[in-house]
Design a protein that fits this description.
The chain has helices at 12-18, 47-57, 65-80, 84-105; strands spanning 107-109, 114-115, 120-121, 128-130, 135-136, 141-142, 146-149, 158-159, 164-165, 170-172, 176-177, 182-183, 188-189, 197-200, 205-208. It is of the alpha/beta class. The strands form 3 sheets. It has a 6-stranded mixed beta sheet with strand order 3-6-9-12-14-15. Strands 1-4-7-10-13 form a 5-stranded parallel beta sheet. The chain folds into 2 domains: 45-107, no CATH class; 113-210, 3 Solenoid (UDP N-Acetylglucosamine Acyltransferase, domain 1). Helix 3 packs antiparallel against helix 4.
Length: 217
């Protein structure tokens, strides 16, 4: 991938694994229960700085639906960090915006979800569903039709930095996806994936040495 998506480029073999939709066609990105917790912004950066980077990472296109999903999420996180009166008011605004965002963008991303900087939602051509208690690291690329969810025992995934999640992948339960790992299209991940490994299949098998290397923080 080029431009803003250079972070998510893969080798020749892994590129075929991750850029396939359910019909086996190439799918490339475009160029370019509430808890009263008060999380700090990712990396202690300002919300405006995080939004600026989201704008760049999503191609610098205001019409990009993924950008709007991220903007509503960032606003929701900002609202949780305000003093009581402003928090109450901004939370009301977020409460109105959130269902509209889900309907328009297809992205379910609650403000309680711990999401790092430079997360890239690649293609809002299908739904993306992320559990509120999941943890998503920095520079994670998530394609469409992805589910990051909970199992009946209440476990939710932790996704480390620089992970790429292909089209239609499902990651559920108390699993840890290590930094720099790649999840192939349409894979079902129900066990841990070590750093810089690739997970392929249903259920996913893990192979070493094919993942992209995690970047330094």
């Amino acid at each position: 991938m080029a431009g803003a998506h250079a972070t998510f480029s893969t080798g020749r073999m892994s590129g075929r694994l991750f850029a396939m939709d359910g019909r086996g066609k190439s799918s490339r990105p475009e160029e370019t229960s509430e808890v009263e917790s008060t999380p700090a912004p990712a990396e202690h950066e300002s919300t405006l700085e995080l939004l600026r980077r989201d704008y760049v990472n999503h191609g610098g296109k205001i019409a990009n639906r993924a950008l709007w999903a991220m903007a509503v999420y960032r606003f929701g996180r900002w609202s949780l960090d305000q003093k009581p009166a402003l928090r109450w008011l901004s939370s009301k605004v977020y409460g109105a915006l959130s269902p509209v965002s889900r309907f328009v963008t297809g992205v379910t991303l609650d403000r309680l979800t711990d999401v790092g900087a430079d997360v890239h939602l690649i293609h809002c051509e299908g739904p993306i569903s992320i559990h509120p208690r999941a943890k998503i690291g920095k520079r994670v690329g998530i394609m469409h039709n992805v589910t990051i969810g909970e199992t009946p025992d209440g476990g939710v995934p932790t996704i480390d930095d620089d992970v790429f999640i292909g089209v239609g992948a499902v990651i559920i339960g108390n699993v840890h996806v290590g930094a720099g790992a790649q999840i192939a299209a349409n894979s079902l991940v129900i066990s841990d994936v070590p750093p810089n490994h690739v997970a392929v299949g249903v259920p996913a098998r893990v192979y070493p040495g094919l993942g992209r290397r995690a970047k330094n923080p």
